[in-house]
Amino acid sequence: MKGTLYIVSTPIGNLEDITLRALKVLKDVDVIAAEDTRRSSKLLTHYGISKPLISYWGEKEKVRSTEILERLHAGQSVALISDAGTPGISDPGAVLIRKALEEAIDVVSVPGVTALIAALSVSGISTDEFTFMGFLPARKSQRQKVLKDLSYEQRTLVFYEAPHRILETLSDMEEIFGERKAAVIKEISKIYEEVIRGNIAEVFRTLEKTTIAGEYVIVMEGRAEEKKLTSDDALQEVSTLMKKGLGRKEAVKKVAEAYGLSKKELYDKSLKVSN
Length: 275
Prior knowledge:
- The chain is an alpha/beta fold.
- It has 11 helices and 10 strands.
């Protein structure tokens, strides 16, 4: 009988941010696969848990996945944990999870805290719909391309960012997104947790004056929905342009192209209004 692979969420800061179920699973499994055994040992020691540990950090993930799968096929149960948060969410683990599913091994989620949801909850920005982008590209040109592609996204945007790139990234965001509201959450659930809210420029200026260190989550409001132009509004704009000296055809063309309206219909309506 095959074993079970448990995807266990661990604290992102405060060690008390772990569920009772997660502790039970970590105590009951045969082995724990950890992103970094040294960091995970602190959590396990804190709760008096002593289990064999396998590291699957970085390049080791593909190689160690084979070893972990062999244990699962032999009937052992395995808990997969990352340094903080949920494995596979901007953390290693996706390779093992995918292979386990391909080999018909039961994969069970043991949910818990995750930085993106924690950041959203205190951001003050709409949480109705959001898009999680994880880490942006490190290279400026690639990062700006991604941000430009997202400039028309109306849903709230959530990013992770490293301390050495946070100011550069916010500068790019100000250039591309303009004066949108944003919140930068630093060191969630840790001693020096801080939330900075305001428009992008305000957040940038505040961060410039602080010590840049730790982990950051950026929550950005989406593009505001453009107000739909009514027929009366369109005709008023045509009239205004004509008063400024434009001919009817030219005024109608400008308004119709700007708002995606039919030039013929708008022209005909403008004639009726003027008669």
